[in-house]
C-alpha cells in the first residue's frame, strides 16, 4: 500500500481524526464507486442511492476493516454487494435485466434515453445494452476489468472469487458482447 493510503487508514482508526479521514476517503473514492455502481444499475438516482448506502456501510464497518486489502478494494466489495442487493430487490419488484435479452436491451435503451445525466451516443447505448444482457456476475467482472481497469487480483479480493474464475467470467462476457454486436473471435 502507498504511504498516503496507510496514513489515511491510520487516521480512520483514530477516533480523534476518524471523521475528517472518512470525508477524505469519500472524496477520494466517491467518483470511482459511483461509476462502478452506475454501470450496473444504469439510472443516476439509483446509483446515487446505492453509493450513499456504500459509504454508510463503510462508516459503520470501519472498526472491522483489517487493512488486508486497500481501501479501494474494500469499498468495491461493499459497492458490489450493495449493487447486487439492489438488483435482487428490483428483480423481486418485477424489474430485471436478466430475464430476457430482448426485453433487457429495450429496458436499458429506454432508461438511458430518458436519463438526463446520460451523455453517450447510440454506440454507448448499444454497448450498455450488450453489457446489460450479461448475467450479474459477468456484468460486474466485465465492468471492473474493462472500465475500471482493475487487476484480476484486486477484483478477486473485492468479490471473493478466484482469479481463474474471474478470467473465465471476463472471457465469457467479452464473447457475449462480441456476439451481441455480431462480431466473432
Key terms for this structure?
about 75% helix; mainly alpha; 9 helices; about 180 residues; about 0% strand
Describe the structure.
Residues 95-102 have low confidence and may be disordered. This protein is mostly helical. It has helices at residues 3-13, 18-41, 44-60, 71-92, 101-114, 122-132, 136-147, 152-159, 163-180.
Architecture blueprint of SSEs:
Layout: H1 3-13, H2 18-41, H3 44-60, H4 71-92, H5 101-114, H6 122-132, H7 136-147, H8 152-159, H9 163-180
Mean pLDDT: 84
Structural class: mainly alpha
What's the β-strand tally? 0
Strand content: under 5%
Q: Distance between termini?
A: 38 Å
What is shown here, in short?
With 185 residues, this protein is mostly helical. It contains 9 helices and no strands. Residues 95-102 have low confidence and may be disordered.
Amino acid at each position: 500500500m502507498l504511504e498516503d493510503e496507510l496514513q489515511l487508514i491510520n487516521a480512520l482508526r483514530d477516533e480523534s481524526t476518524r471523521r475528517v479521514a472518512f470525508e477524505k476517503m469519500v472524496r477520494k473514492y466517491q467518483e470511482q464507486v459511483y461509476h462502478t455502481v452506475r454501470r450496473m444499475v444504469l439510472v443516476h438516482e439509483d446509483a446515487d442511492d446505492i453509493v450513499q448506502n456504500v459509504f454508510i456501510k463503510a462508516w459503520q464497518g470501519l472498526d472491522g476493516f483489517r487493512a488486508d486489502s486497500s481501501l479501494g478494494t474494500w469499498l468495491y466489495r461493499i459497492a458490489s454487494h450493495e449493487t447486487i442487493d439492489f438488483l435482487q430487490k428490483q428483480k423481486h419488484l418485477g424489474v430485471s435485466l436478466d430475464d430476457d435479452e430482448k426485453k433487457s436491451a429495450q429496458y436499458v435503451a429506454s432508461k438511458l434515453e430518458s436519463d438526463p445525466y446520460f451523455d453517450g451516443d447510440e454506440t454507448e447505448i448499444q454497448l450498455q445494452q450488450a453489457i446489460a444482457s450479461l448475467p450479474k456476475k459477468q456484468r460486474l467482472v466485465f465492468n471492473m476489468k474493462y472500465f475500471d481497469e482493475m487487476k484480476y487480483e484486486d477484483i478477486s479480493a473485492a468479490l471473493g472469487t478466484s482469479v481463474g474464475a474471474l478470467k473465465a467470467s471476463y472471457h465469457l462476457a467479452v464473447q457475449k458482447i462480441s456476439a451481441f454486436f455480431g462480431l466473432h473471435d
